[in-house]
Write a structure and sequence with these properties.
Chains A, B: Pfam families: MaoC_dehydratas. Chains A, B: This is MaoC family dehydratase. Chains A, B: InterPro entries: HotDog_dom_sf (IPR029069), MaoC-like_dom (IPR002539), MCH/BMMD (IPR052342). 2 copies of one chain form a homodimer. By secondary structure, the first copy, chain A, is of the alpha+beta class. Chain A has helices at about 25-35, 40, 45, 60-70, and strands at about 15-20, 85-90, 100-110, 120-130, 130-145. The first copy, chain A, has a single domain, classed as Thiol Ester Dehydrase, Chain A. Helix content of chain A is about 25%, strand content about 35%. Chain A has a 5-stranded antiparallel sheet, covered by helices on one side. The two termini of chain A are about 15 Å apart. The interface of A and B includes residues 34 and 89 of A. Strand 2 (about 85-90) of chain A pairs antiparallel with strand 2 of chain B.
Amino acid sequence: MAELAFEDFTPGRVFDLGRITVDRDEMIAFARRFDPQPFHLDEQAGKESIFGQLAASGWYTCGLWMRAYVDHVLSRAVALGSPGGEEISWPAPVFAGDLLAASLEILGARRSRSRPELGLVTLGARMYRGDTPVFRATFTGMFGVRTA
Amino acid sequence: MAELAFEDFTPGRVFDLGRITVDRDEMIAFARRFDPQPFHLDEQAGKESIFGQLAASGWYTCGLWMRAYVDHVLSRAVALGSPGGEEISWPAPVFAGDLLAASLEILGARRSRSRPELGLVTLGARMYRGDTPVFRATFTGMFGVRTA
């Protein structure tokens, strides 16, 4: 039996998802495959860009957060996927070597009316470099209920 | 000089971003690194899941769309990154071998007040398997203006 069910995702609860150091090689390899814009691939193009240096694809940052969420929460939960979300933002660029702190804040939770064995949880994804927010998303997670 | 500037992103314009066949090995490798939930990794776990078979991570689907967007639009544009978006959804699961059609619809466009050399474009990302929508997002792209 999984440790975390719908009932454990109470609004206001914050899960620490640990710290991640951004690996330069993987950051560039990701961009090469999924987001090959010059400022994500090349040091000089990064310097000349709005970011001021070689910057991670926002989708890579998102992937790093997702992995931390799986490791710290979903792997211990009755997780049933996600239909999507309503906010995603990258308030500051992420750079190679950055140390990022990831967390998850539970923003809301309700039982499904059509499928009572399932609960819908509004999830707040956050990632910081020091005091600077670098990633933020609000999306919905579906979880099995313990007392179906 | 890039072919596409802010002025070319007129509301209502639709860009065809081509077709993509979902590669099973890459789909699983992506999930193993960024979203290692059992239904994204293992055929049997997929069958027993809400998806009915091994399904792609939504972030992989997102990455496939992004790559198509770079290849067909951003690589030809004065693209200045994105601060984020306000909607992301996966209305249906994506499976290995799926043939997906990607497109971009321009939903809105306005010049930046604080930085007149820059325009903000509201972008509608869409991806379909046949008539079934599998990915949808609304986000903001920043582009250089031609007549700064």
